[in-house]
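Two quick folds needed for the group meeting slides. Do the first one here.
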Amino acid sequence: MLNAIIADDEKLVRKGFISVIDWEKFGISLVGEAANAKEALILLQQHHVDLLITDITMPGMSGFDLIREARMLYPRLWSVVLTCHHEFDYVQEALRLGAVDYIVKTLLDVEEIDVVMKRITDRIALERQRFGVEVEHPGASETPSYTLALQAGTNGPTPADLRLSMFEPAKEAGPGLWIVPLPGVKSWSDVEELLLPLRHYPWCMAAMRDDEPMGTKKTGEQRESACVSSYLFFESRAGAAPLRLTPGDLSHWEASRVIGREGLTEWKERWLDSRWIFHEGEYGKLLQALESSLFTAGLFREWAAAHFAQWEGIFHAAEDHPEYIRRFGDAVRWSEVKEWVSIYRNEVRQRIQGKFAFSEGVVLSLLAAVKYVQANMGSDVNQNEVAKHVNMSRSYFSQCFKSFMPLSFGGFLRHTRLEKAKELLRAGELPVYRIAETVGFQDEKYFSRVFREHTGSLPSEYREREG
C-alpha cells in the first residue's frame, strides 16, 4: 500500500480530486491533505509518505519548490504534479525535478483519472522492482532488462540534464547520442509505459534488450554508435513511441545504406559548394544521396556549421548566424532536416535575387570559382585562370565577383589561404614552412608577416594559443 498526501490551495478542487478517485483500487492510502507547501512539509514529517501529489501554483512556495525540498529531505519520495497547464515547459520542469508523471486538472473525468492513476502506480511499481522492493516474481531478476538510446539536439535539455528518479545516469556515446540503462524493466510494454512522459521532449528514442546484440559489424563501438544515430535519425517520428531494436535490425539497416560514412566525404564537398541551393538537379541528387546513406543529425550540424562559416556575408548576414545555428541545432530527424534545408534554401535564393541582378548561370559560375580557388589555393592561382575556368571574361568576372563576394578576388584568395593555414596550425602536425607552402606562400617569412598583419599573431604564437 502506498501512503499519499495531496497539496492544493484550492479547497474545492482538492476535495473534488480526492472524491473522484477510488484510492483503494490503486493500492493507495490517503494519509493527509494540505492547503499549501508548508502544511505539506509538516505532513511529511508526521507520516511515512510514499507519494506526494502537489499543485504547481500555490501561494508562497510553489509546487516545484515543494518537490525540490521534499526530495532533499526524503530521496525515496515519488511525486506527481497537478496543473492546469498542458504545456511543454511545465511538463519538462516537473520531469526534471523527478516527478513520475503529471495530471492536467482541466482534462480529468472518471475514465481519464483511472487511466492516469494506473499509469502512475505502474511506474512506481517498476521503480520498486528496480531497487528490489516488493518484487512479486522470484525469478524476475533473471529476465533481461533494457537499454535506452536517445538522440538529442544542441538546444534545450539533454538526457544528462534530467534527474528522473526511474532512470540511471545517461552516458554520452557519440555526438548527441545518449545511452541510459533501464534495470528492472522486464518487458516492452513496461518500456513504453516508462517512457511515455519523455515523448514531450524533442528527442529520438529507441530501446533494446540487454541480452540481444545490436548486430552491427564488429568494427568497434564508434561505428555501432554511428549506426544507432543514423537509424534514429531516419526512422524515429516526433511524439511517437520509442523504436524497438531487435537482433539484426542495425546490421540490416547498415547493409541497406548505399553510401557509408566514408562515401559521405564527396557529398560534404558538394554540400559546401552550394550549387544545390540554385540548381534543382543538384538539390534532388543531394537529398537522394543522403537518404540512402548513414547520415546522422551530428553530421548535419557539422556540415551546416561549416557551410555558414564559408558563406557568411554572402548567403546570409553575419547577424543572422546565431539564429541559423539555433535552428539547425534543433533538427534531430531527417524530416526536420529536410524542412529546415528547404526553408534555408528559399531564404538564400530570395536574398541573392534581391541583392544581385545575376542570372542563375552567373551565380553557379561564381560558386564554381569559389570552389576552384579553395581547391587550388596551394598553386599560383590567379583571376585570369579562374575566369577562364568558369567561362567568363576577366573583366566581367572581376565585376561580378566583387559584387557577389564581400572581398575582391585578391582579398578572397588571401582570406582563403589564411583560414586554411589557421586550420592546419590548430591541427599541429605540419611545420610552419610546410603550411606556408600548402596554402600557396613560397616564402615562409612573407607568410608569417601577412599572417601577423591579419591575425595579430605570428603562426607559431597562434598555434601555441589555439592548438
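Then this one, please, same format:
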Amino acid sequence: MPAFGRALNLAGGLRLTAAQLDAATAGPGRITELAADRVDRPDGLSGEEPQDTLTVLLGDAGSGRSTELAALAVRRAGAAEPLPTLWLRGADLAPGDGSLDDALRRRLAAAAHRSGLPEASPAELAERCADGGRPLLVVLDGPEEAPLALSAAWLAAGLEWLRAHRARALVACRPDGWEQLGPWRTAARALWLGPLTDDAAARAARRYGLPEGFLGPAERGHPLALRLAGDLRAAGVHGPVADRAELFDGWLDLACLTVARRVAQASGGQRRHRRGGPVPTGEDARQVRRLAAVAAGRLHEAARLMLGAGDGRCPPRSSTGCSRPRAAGRGPSARSTCWSRRVPATGPATRRGGSGCRACTWTSARRCASCSPRTAGRPAPPGPGPPGWRRCPRRRSRPPRA
C-alpha cells in the first residue's frame, strides 16, 4: 500500500489488478464495454469460477470467447469480495518473453505507473493473493495472436509459474490454437463454446433491436453476426440480410463510412468553393464518399497483409503504411491527420502492443480481404494527396473531378 511503504498486501494487490483490468482492452473497446454485450448461455462461464490451474475456452471465430472472458473478469472485480484478475492478449506477448512472468511484469508496471501505485512483481502479487485466500487468475485471450508461435519451453515455463505461485489461468482460443498449446493440452480443462441457443439468440436480437427475419437461420445463433447486425440496424439498415457475406460487406461499408466522416471532421478548416465562394456548412458528401473509398482500399490491403502474416497482425507503418493514409482534405491539419487514430475506434482493426495493428477478428480479416480484387500482399504506395487509392467493388476507382 502507498501509505505503508512498498510492502505489498492483499488490498494493494487488489488495487493493482483493478487498475490493470480497468485499462485493459479487448478488440476496439474496453473490457467493461465487451462484458456488457454478454447474454446468458448454457455453455458460457455463467457463474463458475475456474478451479483448475489451467482452463481453456475453445470456440470458432465470433463465438463469444472474448465476451465470456470479459464478463467473468468484470464480475470478479465487482464482487462483494473482489477477486484479483490480470488480463493479457496474445498480441501483448513479446518475442523475448521467457514465460508468463515477463508479460505480466510489463502489464503490472504500466498499471502501477498509471495509478500511482508502487510496482510489484507478478510472483509477489500471486503469492499475496494466494495467502489471502483469493488466488490470482490470469486471463489470456487469443494466444495464437502472439507475435511468435509459443514454444513448448515457453508453455512449460508458464505452467510451472502458475503452479509455483498458486495462480490460475483461463485461456480462450480458436480450435486451431488448441493444437498449438502443446504441454498445456494435457494439463488443461477444456470447455467448448458453440452457437447460441434459440432462447439466448432471441434475447440478444431483442437487445440489439433486430426484428424477426433480419438475419438468416445460419446467423441467428452467431454472437458476432448478431452484434454486427445490431450496428447496421442502429445505422438505419432495415434488412433483411441474406447471408453472412452480405452482413460483413454491409458492416465494412458502414465502418469505412464512419472512418471517412471522422477524418473529414478532423480535417477542419474553412473550405471554399472552386469559384471562390464559401462552401455551405454541413457534410461534404462528395468528400465523404471519396474518403470512404480510400478507407475501403486501405482496409482491404491491411487485411491481406494481416492474413499474409498468418496471425492477424499488420506490419508497422514504416514497412507498408497500409492502414494509415493521411487525410485527403486541404490544409496542414488535414495533411497531418493520421487515419490510424480513426480506424481502431470503428472496429475493423485495433492497435496491438508495440507497432502495427491487427484485425479484431480472424473472420473480419478474411472477409475484408476477399472483398478486394487486387493482388495479395502488394504494399500501398507512399506519397501525399489521396494516397493509396484502391479500386473497390461497387465504387468508382477515382473521385469525380471538381
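Slide caption for protein two: The CA atoms of residues 313 and 358 lie 4 Å apart.
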